[in-house]
């Protein structure tokens, strides 16, 4: 197998309590891959803890959101010549044990690999509203891409060289997970899902509420429909 340079992009915002252990765990489990932490304007010591653990760090001057964090990571990967990227969260919820399956899919030629929480593993639990929202978006995105997508909002994803170059230039502004799946499909990139395990947050709590979840679902649906009619 060709030795392809790999980068793990961790998105982090005020994760000083767990970013160091997350970086250390990934460096031990995946010594052949570099680790980049995109510190999205944290007000705490996230960047310092990440550097101490051995990660490269890029810091936004203020909080710009998930889409900007992912775009920064992919632009860095493109400019540095990485040929495969794994995007994971800095809170340690994404289990490194699932990484080999994502890498195998990338090595097999897939350009976008989605680590799905609903494709054969049962470690993830959510509220009924979030399950309903995911199922709705799953059906909508599957229809638009003509491919079954079970986890349209998963942030545990892998990118191949063509996808890195493309999303390093052009990236969704608001909802990177579902919008980028549709964008990749319209570019003709091979896409697949693999089962992925999720773990409880090590620190902090989710900012999502039932109202925010419903609002998110409505806005993402509209964004997907608008993306579908944009010129390729």
Structure, explained:
There is one protein chain. The protein is of the alpha/beta class and 232 residues long. Helix content is 43%, strand content 16%. It has helices spanning 19-29, 46-52, 66-80, 99-107, 128-145, 161-169, 176-186, 210-229; strands spanning 6-12, 34-39, 56-59, 84-89, 112-116, 157-159, 191-195. It has a 7-stranded mixed beta sheet, with helices on both faces. Strand 2 (34-39), helix 2 and strand 3 (56-59) form a beta-alpha-beta unit. The protein is globular, with a radius of gyration of 17 Å. The model has no long low-confidence stretch (mean pLDDT 88).
Shape: globular
Low-confidence stretches: none
- Please work out how many helical segments DSSP would assign: 8
Provide mean pLDDT, rounded: 88
Helicity level: 40-55%
In whole angstroms, how far apart are the ends? 33 Å
Strand order of the largest sheet: 3-2-1-4-6-5-7
Outline of this structure?
This protein has 232 residues and is an alpha/beta fold. The protein contains eight helices and seven strands, in the order βαβαβαβαβαβααβα. The chain has helices at residues 19-29, 46-52, 66-80, 99-107, 128-145, 161-169, 176-186, 210-229; strands at 6-12, 34-39, 56-59, 84-89, 112-116, 157-159, 191-195.
């Amino acid at each position: 197998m060709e030795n392809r340079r790999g980068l793990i992009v961790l998105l982090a915002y005020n994760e000083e309590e767990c970013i160091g252990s997350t970086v250390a765990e990934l460096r031990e489990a995946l010594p052949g891959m570099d680790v980049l932490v995109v510190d999205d304007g944290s007000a705490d010591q996230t960047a310092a803890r990440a550097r101490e653990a051995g990660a490269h760090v890029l810091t936004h001057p203020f909080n710009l959101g998930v889409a900007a964090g992912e775009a920064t990571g992919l632009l860095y990967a493109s400019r540095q010549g990485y040929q495969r990227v794994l995007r994971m969260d800095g809170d340690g919820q994404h289990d490194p044990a699932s990484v080999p399956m994502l890498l195998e899919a990338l090595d097999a030629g897939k350009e976008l690999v989605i680590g799905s929480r609903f494709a054969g593993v049962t470690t993830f639990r959510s509220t009924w509203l979030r399950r309903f929202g995911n199922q709705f978006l799953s059906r909508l995105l599957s229809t638009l891409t003509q491919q079954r997508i079970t986890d349209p909002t998963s942030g545990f994803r892998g990118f191949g060289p063509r996808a890195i170059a493309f999303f390093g230039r052009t990236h969704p502004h608001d909802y990177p997970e579902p919008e980028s799946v549709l964008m990749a499909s319209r570019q003709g990139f091979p896409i697949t899902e693999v089962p992925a395990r999720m773990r409880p947050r090590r620190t902090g709590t989710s900012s999502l509420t039932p109202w925010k979840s419903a609002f998110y679902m409505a806005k993402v649906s509209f964004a997907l429909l608008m993306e579908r009619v944009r010129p390729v």
